[in-house]
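User: I'm preparing a small set of examples for a lab meeting where we compare how different chains pack in three dimensions. I only have the primary sequence for this one, and I'd like the structure in token form so I can line it up with the others. Please keep the answer compact; I'll paste it straight into my notes.
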Amino acid sequence: MREYFEDFEIGDRFVTRTRVVSGSEIECIVGLMGATNPIFLSAEAARSKGFEGKITPGAVISAYAFGLEYQTGVYDNIVALIEVDEMRFRAPLLHGSPLRSELEVIHKRETSRPDRGIVVFQRRCYVGDRMIMEAKLKFLYHRRQS
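Assistant: Understood. Below is the structure token output for the 146-residue chain.
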């Protein structure tokens, strides 16, 4: 398991389990967020905009991805999420779809503080083999204490 800054190597990959994201969960979250766009709540409205059915807001896709990634243990020793950059949505996440996420270490560097280091991941989210979202995530990690 990767717990500390030193444990990560460029090219390391972490693949989450697949989780079916149910429509009722999405509708509840959308309601709590106040993101009541009809394409999130109505299949007819979504189809009228060219989608196959109700879709999931991007913020909710990202939240589900973080949850799946936390379950791998990759974030067990972070100090903080510093930045989310270059987030791109390639395809919609339909209600009831199976989502999984993959993280790849693409950069790491020491900081001026001897107890911390920065690790940058490339996130890719998939439904089946189709990538639907990607982003770069920058985290501050603890370093091993000597």
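A couple of notes for your slides: The CA atoms of residues 118 and 140 lie 5 Å apart. The chain has one domain: 5-142.

User: Perfect, thanks.
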